[in-house]
Amino acid sequence: MWTPDGYVYLVVGNDEIRRHVKILLDPQSPENVISTHCLSLFPGYTYSASAGVPIGTSITGRENYLSIAEVEIRWNGINNNARRFTGPYFRETLYESSTCHVMESDEFYLIIGRPTINRLELFKRNKKRIIAAWRGYNTSVNNENVDDEQESAEDRRKKAKEAQKQREKEEKDKRVKK
User: Fold this and answer.
1) Domain that holds residue 44
2) Which uninterrupted H or E stretch holds 157?
3) 10, 21, 70, 104: least buried by Cβ within 10 Å?
4) What are the pLDDT digits (tens) for 33-84?
């Protein structure tokens, strides 16, 4: 993940207001996400909250990330310290419009996800593999059964290890008898 400084722009009343934020560029995130904490930096800005819609799960698979709304924003990066060999270059003049899911959190301001990263080719210069702690929402996984499935897998591994020890013991006994 790369976390450059940037600006988020929202229309409040008849004015467009700008706020300085840390932007998380996360190639594992399937969506652009803005936090309720970030939106609270814009006094007077309102959005229509709805029931949580799953947009992802934590890397452990035990926590669902829910979107409570969608908002339209404009954003851009700040080119301070962006000219480095390990990260992409942000042009200060590039203003990007994005639809973002709103997530209740104070852990981040703005996450730019994989579709936007790919479209803007933000990581094209970086040839290293990037690992992040976000993955897309898999509807076939039931998070309520994760603990049971983990215990079941541990039991299978334990039984396989015991069976291996038993086979090794039998082979050793056969060699001793000869």
Assistant:
1) 5-136
2) helix 146-177
3) 104
4) 999 999 999 988 888 878 778 888 777 777 888 888 999 999 988 765 544 4
Rounded-to-integer distance, Cα 34 and Cα 128, Å:
26
> Which two three-digit tokens encode residue 104?
């209740």
Q: Which of 46, 41, 37, 35 is nearest to 17 (CA)?
A: 41
Residue that is written with structure tokens 């819609």 in the block: 53
Query: Mean pLDDT in runs of 10 for the chain (178 residues)?
Result: 79 89 87 92 86 78 84 81 48 76 90 87 59 57 69 89 92 82
**DSSP-based three-state secondary structure for 136:** strand
Enumerate the β-bridge partners of residue 16: 11
* 20 and 102, same domain (yes or no): yes
Whether 31 and 59 share a structural domain: yes
What is the value of pTM for the model shown?
0.62
User: With contact defined as beta carbons under 8 Å apart, do 57 and 139 qualify?
Assistant: no
Comparing C-alpha atoms, which of 104, 127, 101 is closest to residue 115? Answer: 101
Q: Which two tokens stand for residue 82?
A: 């962006």
SS3 8: strand
